[in-house]
């Protein structure tokens, strides 16, 4: 597949899946009733941050697919997508805060593993995943804090 359609396909697929999962797992009354730490950001911040990250994740996925299709990096990219898309239904849909924490820890590990294995073969993709790693680190802290407070 030529590069441009590959990039478009990955970006559209990742953003669309993220949007679909977000629409089907909207934080509702249950989430509003939870005790949250003082560093909990306002709800409006999550959609633009995740949309931006999903574009980056899609771009990096396409780049990895095009240049390192059968690599450990591609497997870690796929793993992080699986964990990423599993988290919202567990947390917001099933109200499984502890199980969601386990999943987000797996997500965090897979994101950092992607960065580590990409560092030598595709430094740009590794760098592009840094904001994602920072956000997932923060989200992991938030998930853990909500579990402890509730």
TrEMBL record:
Keywords: Membrane, Transmembrane, Transmembrane helix. It is found in: Membrane. One of its GO terms (cellular component) is membrane. InterPro entries: TspO/MBR-related_sf, TspO_MBR. The chain crosses the membrane at residues 7-24, 44-62, 74-92, 98-119, 126-149. It is a multi-pass membrane protein. The keyword Transmembrane helix applies. One of its GO terms (biological process) is tetrapyrrole metabolic process. Belongs to the TspO/BZRP family. This is Tryptophan-rich sensory protein.
């Amino acid at each position: 597949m030529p590069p441009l359609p590959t990039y478009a396909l990955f970006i559209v697929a990742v953003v669309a899946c993220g949007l679909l999962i977000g629409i089907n797992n909207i934080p509702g009354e249950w989430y509003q009733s939870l005790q949250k730490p003082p560093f909990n950001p306002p709800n409006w911040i999550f959609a633009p941050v995740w949309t931006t990250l999903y574009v980056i994740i899609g771009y990096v996925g396409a780049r990895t697919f095009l240049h390192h299709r059968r690599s450990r990096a591609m497997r870690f990219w796929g793993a992080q997508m699986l964990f990423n898309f599993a988290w919202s239904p567990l947390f917001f849909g099933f109200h499984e805060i502890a199980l969601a924490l386990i999943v987000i820890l797996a997500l965090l590990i897979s994101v950092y593993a992607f960065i580590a294995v990409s560092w030598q073969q595709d430094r740009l993709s590794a760098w592009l995943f840094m904001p994602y790693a920072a956000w997932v680190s923060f989200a992991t802290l938030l998930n853990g804090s909500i579990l402890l407070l509730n």
